[in-house]
């Protein structure tokens, strides 16, 4: 809910001088605004200088003051989320400097819900395929993991308590896929003490595009004499399109066939409609035990392409998106019908003096999608004459363009049992058990219209390639942390996690026997018709067990200043490569060395936090599209990331608050990446020009030499926010400005692919807002991307970069958007 002001002794109100504002802008170095809790409105005769409120977080699975947590932790509170009109992942990602993201690409639908999340520059690129690596960043809704292999759930951000971004390895408490960090979305919980309700209505207009809207509402109902409550939340949202699928043709060189996209050409192509509900119950069984069941469900129907092709209408545009039309020229339908729900149960209470928490969650996600894949056919025909291999039953050459029809079914269940000792003791213990299983049913049908039956996968007409598989990932762990106060001000904490993981992949992938004698039906070893496929040609599994640790030393210098030093580890499990001749890939590990500080100054009017770190990434998993467009994963190499993270919040005057922070990273390879493994399974790092690869082919040198910057993450990312509030009539008004900047980024780790895909240019975006509140009514006006910049966010190609990279797509920030929101609280 919207922030209000503290009541305080009578003092004379003073207008803000120009100097504090100038000093604020100079001191606040870009970053997420401090999550502030601000109490009720006061009159002009009752004001005193503003101080910053206490922020309570649960990053270490217990409630703590943010300033006492020895972690590089960035928080966006409920007030900040509302003030910034945060609605989805991309909205809060730009406010968290440690957070970066890419898109799946590679023939996968690239619209909403398929974002790959990275933190602190720990990114090799290409992790978004269904047979790729597990994510390196854990995403949580309250206590429940919400990460699937192809991307985290993109939850609509309404009625949320806060977002916590824990930078650096969080493996001891959060386990697999929290290798480089963890993002936690904390919902507002049922409150048995009082009734509350609210709603918001927002309308928007996108420059160069259409109209959008958002409808939101919640109600909190106490039950059974204030010992129980229910909280219900609902939303419906329409995202306006702004990318046009322009009408045009494409001629395939080998056959001379010309295809037209007249049937699917459309303005404002990339629309999305989202609807969802969230419900939670709270039962206070007695003064010690609480039971909270929760259910959240969302449906999202998205269309079109999130990326633009700068060369459409301007063949010489290259990668320049600054003035490029927001357009593509695609030939087949593109959509995603994404439906999911997550049920959860939290039981919390006391066993003696210990806090006991049990958490269960079950996620079901089903996605039907279609993707244009015609670039694959065009560029393989252009570069290698592949069009000669595709014909109809009469033997005539046909249009070789492909399109994908896919069904993905995700299931994930987890259990956690956690025991925490009293926090007022000198010795404190957290211990727990964790178990989870997740499966992914994969069906991808690559179709070519008119394809001869002899070339098709048996039982699947006009299907040149079929993937019908089930992937299974499991994780079991025992974890614990012990903290001991050496003195009243010095605390040492040690943590450990022992884990066991397994990964299995079974099913069919490939061509029909009439098209290939080396991949697909020709390689089947079982006649089992797995998930409707003609046979089974892959059935493998791998198990691993290991442990990771954490050691922290904290010095509470005084009541407002704290220093800490941390050594911590994170990991990702290994898994199976689909190509049977490739070995499994192993778990990769990240080791973090960090010093940090949490400080407040000037009677808590200024907060300044920061962290300086070095991370070593050992044998990191690298995913890429290899032969036949198959994803291949190798334990590629070693990398090191040096970085500095700062956060600063200043209550400059009673009316003005300025906040900022920045992240500065230097992520680089510490050894050559040659592209293959040695006989001992280790990555080859010595490959001067003329070296023979495992296939006997000479190479021109490393694919990525030592010192190469890791992709996706800029060396600098940050933002700066200033908010000024003042009385206007019988209410309170405000204006707000937010500046976000990201530096230049690589798209791919490898040199040859980078030559095709290029770099993402640096960008700076300005968002403005103003509003007025009277009583329980509020009106807000937002102007996002004020100068209508074509800010490049990610880039991808439909197939392997050395082929389809001749025609890359760039996802840009939405154009200038004007939005008006009316809201009321009861």
Summarize the structure.
6% of the residues lie in helices and 50% in strands. With 826 residues, the chain is mainly beta.
How would you portray this structure in words?
With 826 residues, this protein is mostly beta strands. It has one domain: TonB-dependent receptor, beta-barrel domain (Maltoporin, Chain A). The protein contains seven helices and 42 strands. The chain has a 22-stranded antiparallel barrel. A hairpin with a 4-residue loop joins strand 30 (588-601) and strand 31 (606-625). It is globular, with a radius of gyration of 27 Å.
Secondary structure elements and their pairing?
Elements: H1 18-27, E1 56-57, E2 64-65, E3 73-77, H2 78-83, H3 89-93, E4 99-103, E5 115-119, E6 137-141, E7 144-145, E8 147-148, E9 151-152, E10 160-167, H4 171-174, E11 181-187, E12 196-206, E13 211-223, E14 228-239, E15 244-245, E16 249-251, E17 258-260, E18 272-284, E19 290-303, E20 307-308, E21 327-328, E22 335-351, E23 354-373, H5 374-384, E24 402-420, E25 427-447, E26 463-485, E27 490-510, E28 538-558, E29 561-572, E30 588-601, E31 606-625, E32 631-651, E33 656-669, E34 716-728, E35 731-742, E36 745-746, H6 751-757, E37 759-760, E38 763-774, E39 777-784, E40 792-796, H7 801-804, E41 809-812, E42 817-825
Parallel strand pairs: 6-11, 15-21
Antiparallel strand pairs: 1-2, 3-10, 4-5, 6-7, 8-9, 10-11, 12-13, 12-42, 13-14, 14-18, 16-17, 18-19, 19-22, 20-41, 22-23, 23-24, 24-25, 25-26, 26-27, 27-28, 28-29, 29-30, 30-31, 31-32, 32-33, 33-34, 34-35, 35-38, 36-37, 38-39, 39-42, 40-41
